[in-house]
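Researcher: Next entry in the queue.
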Amino acid sequence: MAQGNNRLASIASFTLFSAWLIAFPYEGQVLYSLFALRAISPSVWIIAAIAAHLCGLVCCALFVKNLKGAKKAMLLSGAVCFLGTALFFIPVSALWMASLLCVSLFAGFFISAWGYFYREYTPAGKRMGTVALTLALSAALMIFVNLCAVYVSAYLALGLCLVLLAGALYFALRLPVPAVLRETPAERVSYIQPFATLCAFVLIITINSGLMFQVILPAFSDVGLVADIYWAVPYIAAIFLVSRLPARIDKGYILYAAIAMLGFAFIAFVALDRSAWSYIAINTLLLGACGVNDLFWWSILGELLDFDKNPAKTLGIGLGANVAGVLLGKLIGSASIFSASSGACALIGMAVVCVAVVLLPPLHGQLLLVLKGNSFLAAFSELSPDAQAETVSEAARIAGLSERENEVALLLLKGWPYRLIGEKLFISESTVKTHVLSIYGKLGVHSRTELIQKFSEET
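Model: Structure for this entry, 459 residues:
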């Protein structure tokens, strides 16, 4: 029960903070409304804020090394964001600019540091549920705050942002740091290549999000209330529906469908007029696709947290790829040739779709290999030493491995580096490498990850 309560506190803290983030400093309607009151052009400052947020996401891991440090980072960052947001009640433009950059930077620290609690209190295999809940709820709260900003008062919406931050700090303060952390597999499969491919996919696919903010949404500025209410509804609906699909359904096909929806959205942007009905059609395609895509890569990032001793680094870099994609899309969209031509914008959007389709098959294969391998390691580490040796010996006998190669293979499967294998077996590191090459050749594999995959298939 305590673990479940901790998970809920973790979700609540992140959800409230994310709602503040997307309602205020990160392309938030509250920020736009405040700038409008002061007749300030937001374009340059919005881009600067996104860049500062990217910096905070990526740099957090340099300072946060454990769960205790993560909690301190969340509390400090939340307090800075609360103070920086409150300063917007003071109508001094220069103060606003400094505060915006500061809160955007520290917001990145908060988000990345939360990766420790995401991993600690949401078990592997259940992280899609956590992601779906946080993304959907934060979007719903954002809609409410945005409506207050546009139709009631920008300063009332700013006060609601402070309430969201206060709630995030309250639940972050309640998050315990256990004396004994939840165990994760001690020996991990190398995840660098699939993680890099995932980041490339996220970067490419979210360029369209930047184009959406910079080109598509401003084109429907005259739609009014319909746009303000309906904007995030397809996003929430897509997350809700996909997260509740039966496990037997291959969600890879749904991801392809979402990418196709992005393509159709840009085609519709060129073909249709700028009426409310056109907005509903385009926004349904665009935001529905964004919901599926976000749920996909957020969930994968969650599963990859177990592969790094510092989950703030994995989460920060992964989300940094998303923010970098949005930033790149906005910069592309701000160029005169693209902002003035729906056809040019659609051309870029379709190019992004094509690259994403090319990246998806290798990404799926790499992730499947790594995640399955990690499941094997978790099960393998729970076996007794005799059972581990018997598992490897049977496969080694079939492959024709020598006795020494059998010993090396067992230690490889335990995740030992070459140097420690050499010390264990009283042989040089170069001799270990020779044995490893021989093992790989006899088993028809090319890496430790493929070796683990080979043994997981045979057991």
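Model: The two ends are 35 Å apart (CA to CA).
Researcher: Noted, moving on.
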